[in-house]
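Page 47, continued from p. 46.
Same chain as before, 231 aa.
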Amino acid sequence: MEIDTAVWLWLGLAGMTAGTIPTAYQLLTNDENRHLSSVLFGVTGIAALAYLAMALGYGIVEVGGTAIEVVRYGDWLLTTPLMVLYLGLLSQPGSRVLGALVVVDAVVVLAGVAATALGGVVGYAFFGVGTVAYLVLVALLVWTLPRRASFDTPRQAASFTTLRNLTVVVWTLYPVVWLLAPTGVGLLLPDTQVLVLTYLDLVSKVGFVAVAVRGMSALTGSATDMSVNAD
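Result:
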């Protein structure tokens, strides 16, 4: 492993670990939103373990001469459904919509694995499948969830909107990286690809958790204010 690549991975580990601290604190001190804190803890906690494994040189499998970062894809397969689950828990659209979100998200990641492993025309075909699935996921997040949502407070709706927008914007950059990296046209060097993916992971996951934790604090404060006013 190139030293530059290892440095970015260790920085990714440090960032994910730091992002886990606020949710660990929430789990210890806030019983009211424990279910939400548990989901957020899983997002950065799993990612931290994945970055530790990658920084130590584990999780790369050769398939037909192509290196597949199975740990990275495993991270995405576990953490991205947790992120859409959190958005679903905030918006409460119903179990069918929530299930559709998780399934479509998994299809996006698995199509990416197949596209990377197979390469060539078949790889681009699976990339197309993943792109279509991602567009469906965006449609669910942007149109279906708000229409089906039953927010308890305006602050909860505002937190959902901020998190949803952050997720859609950052996630849209991942397929662009795939196309520019050696998996696609090869304009990005492998070291640069690791740098960009680490940066996107930190923004999408740690940024998501930071905004969500702040939103939970607002929700708790709102509930306390309503209780005081009622008294």
